Amino acid sequence: MVNNRVFWACQAVLFIERNTKPATDSISNATYLTGVQAVGIDGDIPSNSLADSGRFQQKFRYEDRQKVFNINISRVLNKTSSTFYTTANYSSSYTNTHILHSDNIGSQGEYNPDTKCLKNYDIFILYGDDTAANIGDTANIKYVCYRGCLLNSLSYDINVASIITESITLTCKKLEYGTVSVASLPTVPANGSTESGNILKRTDIGFTLPQEAEAIFNTDASLTVNDSTVYGIQSINLSLDLEYTNLNDVGIWRGYDSITDINLWDFLVVPVSVTATFNGIARSIYPNQSLGNSDREFNPNKTIKVTGNTGSDYFIWDLGTKNYLTSISKSGGDTGGGNVEISLTYTNEYSDFIVAKNSTIYSINNTGPY
């Protein structure tokens, strides 16, 4: 039924990624983002008032600073596609795969000597008619383009009870509206076509755990199913949070009249926040047994690596070798039949967070400060 509404089948997300300054690239150069389950936008429009002496009603207001828009995207991972952010030049090189490398997130909005700057994205959200079976069947599609977006957070939820999801948050100071013919777009779903349902699942996941996590969740190495060790892990969350600071110019709003300058004086705050949380059914008396036996001294050199096997290559999340345990929590074991569950959270202060897709899983050793 036609209701002249916007709903999930009317939307699609395209993106352009660059390590150069923001530009007004055409939507025809964008890439269709597969597996999107939800997309949301919220905006901050700040303003201040001028107080009038003797008046409680504030009559005069002025715009305080640039508008900021937050884009939140949730998606599943198709085995034939990639993660939204992918480490460039994935190899055994610690320097080349580090998040601060100029081919990855980078560190500053101004060009460095390699003519690279902070990684930024153009996000195009398409809105078709609800008269069409697929968005690709709409002759002319309206869109909103969020220019020069900076990546704020990236997280991966791996859970035995649900599909593996990627959550993306970006911020933007500039948006545009437009209309485009479907013939000018990259491939989007048309009538009769669907995305592949061959998505990454929990059964495809493998991991390298720190010693105490191994002791908690794997107390019997002989317990296997289909030649795979049985762990008590119920969920894994890997997250990256990026914060930026910026320098303001007196007398100018950067990017207001030139899109190339919108992130000019933005800088990445380091170290970036990297966390990994493992939640599972307790299979040892922790911490009295596992921690007391295997971690008597504080150890900041713990390796965390998670992989997803697609059959032809691997999704790889490598948090390096410099992680340390930050928190322990225990819950459950109630009279309703619940199991005792333990959560272990780790972090590192080396900004080590690699996301890749490759046929080879490399061992990347921290060779010193980046």
Give a verbal description of the structure.
The protein is built from three helices and 22 strands. It has one domain (8-45, 64-358). Helix content is 4%, strand content 39%. The strands form five sheets. Strands 1, 2, 3, 6, 7, 8, 9, 10, 14, 17, 20 and 21 form a twelve-stranded antiparallel beta sheet that branches. With 370 residues, it is mainly beta. The radius of gyration is 24 Å and the shape is globular. β18 and β19 form a beta hairpin.
Overview in brief:
This protein has three helices and 22 strands.
Outline the secondary-structure elements:
Blueprint lengths: L10 E8 L12 E2 L3 E9 L2 E4 L9 E4 L4 E9 L17 H4 L22 E8 L12 E20 L5 E8 L1 E8 L23 E4 L2 H7 L6 E2 L2 E2 L3 E9 L2 E3 L19 E3 L4 E9 L8 H5 L10 E5 L4 E5 L5 E9 L7 E9 L5 E5 L12
Antiparallel strand pairs: 1-2, 1-7, 3-6, 4-5, 6-9, 7-8, 8-9, 8-10, 8-14, 11-18, 12-13, 14-17, 15-16, 17-21, 18-19, 19-22, 20-21
